[in-house]
Amino acid sequence: MKNQQLFLTWLLAILSFSAPAQTDLLVEAERFLDKGGWVTDPQFIEQMGSSYLMAHGLGLPVKDASTEVRFKKKGDYHVWVRTRNWVPGKWDPPGRFQLSVNGKKFEKQLGIGPEWDWEYVGAIKIDQRKSQLGLHDLTGFNGRCDAIYFNQEKKAPPSELEALTNWRSTMLDETTKPTKTKKYDLVITGGGLAGCAAAIAAAERGLKVALIHDRPVLGGNASSEIRVHTLGIYGKFERILKQIDTEHYPNGSAEAKKDQIRRDENMKKYPNIDLHLNWRAYGVGESNSTIEYVDARHTSTGERIRFKAPLFVDSTGDGWIGYWAGADYSYGRESVHQYGEAWDEWGELWSPEEADDFVMGSSVLWQTSKKEQEQPFPSVPWACEIADGHQAIAGEWYWEFSRNDLHQIHDGEEIRDHMLRAIFGSYSNARIDPENRKYRLDWVSYLLGKRESRRLVGDHVFTFKDVTDQVKFPDGVVQEIREVDVHFQQNLTDENKPDFLSKALFFHTDMYYIPYRSLYSKNINNLFMAGRCFSCSHVGLGGPRVMRTTGQMGAAVGFAAVLCKKYKANPRQIYTDHLEEYMQLIEAQQ
Question: What's the predicted TM-score (pTM) here?
Fold first, then answer.
């Protein structure tokens, strides 16, 4: 019944919107030729339908974005912009901007509506087929523009996501099926340390590898865009991981840029690795529990490629490839009774009595610097409301947000925006002290640094008890000595604390091991996973979620893929039929 209702809703949306006239023009904002100071944000495509441009100016209006468009016919047009007010409520919308056509700005301010939808801009006479569009930021506080639409009938495009997606395809004359196909020995989706390490390990031994990553730079949370330093040990893979990890700079430090250059250069030197930066996977082809291909789209141009291979690695963090393929996965905290992850030696309870959807949160890091003179910053009452009196001039790992009723994937934009308000508000509050007014807000990430979301299920689920019992697996390919470190929100134990700061439970341990069986899917025949979406419990993720450890996972599956090709085997058969040779290969990496 529910599926029938969804189908009818979609059908009515399609029928209510007649086919667009040939004179209509749709312009995707992320395809602007000159983005000016606006940034492309592809993090929430699955939720809102597209990449979009965002004016991330830290309170200073950013440089205009502009592009050239060509109308099929001169005449009178109505103009619509898909946007949203990211702080709905009693305050003036902080992300306001204006649209210009041929240098003339519409008076209408955009970014007003509470949800992603089409806002009517006004009517205009187009007297030249080749025209210039511009986005003019008014605030510097994260105005966002998805698309601009011109029509002559004054009828808004569809709002419902599925209908909108189909309408976009019609307007842009695109299909969801890529027109280009590329074939590889191994396709890796996700260019964090796990994905990079997997690519190196496989490519060094002759595999032709595609590495698909939705950002312009590699490294994931370690990148210069998010700036988390790497922790953990190198295990058996020091040579590989030293090419892609970071120094132990303070989280949020601009020193991340130096490691970024080194990492990207090291990855580009491998002729067997085809880097596809700014490409975001959006679906898979699966048959008989086997993935046949991954489809990806360029985050700005919209171009699509189909990536075929006998083997795939999910290093997306959110487990997207496994999810689309139908892999078993878990989300949230297990009951204390499921795996016996109970109390540590100090009596701390690590798992709840009943399972729930709480997970470790996402962080947005930020950085300031002290100057000789006072630094200007506008009033941000819409942000101070979230900060709730908290004062800060710097961010760290504990700037983190998670709630039971917010999903770290489905509600990612709301989580990111909550953190932006917390940062701007806390910084503004700190300026009550005249000395703090000399601190300039230098950098705030607009990308979520996630700790936990989906965890794909393998033949072994790694748990806290594997750590506390010091289990030595016959297929133990990852090793770690870093303490288990599970985060939760400070306001859960102290109602006077803000909801955007976390604290941690720590368990110090000797070396523990992660088995290879936790690095391939239980029910998808040719899928490896490396990174925080590997097979583990919520508490089991607490230790090995750090990036040198996930890098070890990546290297381990890269070498496993080499043997899969050698023997025409699937990942499970490396454990059942070729474990001795595989472990010898791992040991030889020291």
Answer: 0.94
